Amino acid sequence: MTARFCFPPTLRIRKRAEFLRLSHDGEKVYLSHFLLIYHRRDDGGYRFGITVSRKVGNAVVRNRVKRLVREVCRHTSPVPPADYSIIARKGAGMLEVDAVRTQLEKAFRQVSKGR
User: Fold this and answer.
1) Which residues of 43-76 are buried (b: 16+ CB within 10 A; e: fewer)?
2) What b/e sequence results for 12-30 when a residue is b if at least 16 CB atoms lie within 10 Å of its CB, and e otherwise?
3) Which long-range contacts (CB under 8 A, 24 or more apart) does 67-74 make?
4) Which helix (DSSP H) or strand (DSSP E) does residue 62 occupy?
5) Sequence spans of domains, the chain
6) Per-residue pLDDT for the chain (115 aa), expressed as one digit of tens each?
7) How far apart are CA 96 and CA 5, in angstroms?
């Protein structure tokens, strides 16, 4: 039996209303290639939403950035209990997985310290 390495729907933010609530009520952490918006949760869970606009690149580049961010989020644990919206900024398409991991782990550390 093989292990399933997936990013289940229960860990995703997918509805526009949830993204809007998060951007309105959430706190922001600015990184060089990403913007992390988070809103703490009391139930101990966490969810991720990923946004990559056309400013980052064409469809191939945008999908690659989303795959890299999902991979980092899947392997990064423990993260503080919150809903997270990760918005890729210009230049994120040129990053390798290690650079994405470094930036997002830095942001998660700032969230856990209470910034």
Assistant:
1) eeebbbbbbbeeebbeeebbebbbebbbebbeee
2) ebeeeebbeebbeebeebe
3) 68/95, 68/97, 68/100, 69/34, 69/100, 69/104, 70/7, 71/97, 72/97, 72/100, 72/101, 72/104, 72/105, 73/7, 73/11, 73/48, 73/104, 74/5, 74/7
4) helix 59-75
5) 9-112
6) 445 667 788 888 999 999 999 999 999 999 999 999 999 888 878 899 999 999 999 999 999 999 999 988 888 767 788 999 999 999 999 999 999 999 999 998 888 887 5
7) 20
pTM of the model: 0.88
CATH for 9-112, options being 3.30.230.10, 1.10.1740.10, 3.10.20.310, 3.40.228.10 = 3.30.230.10
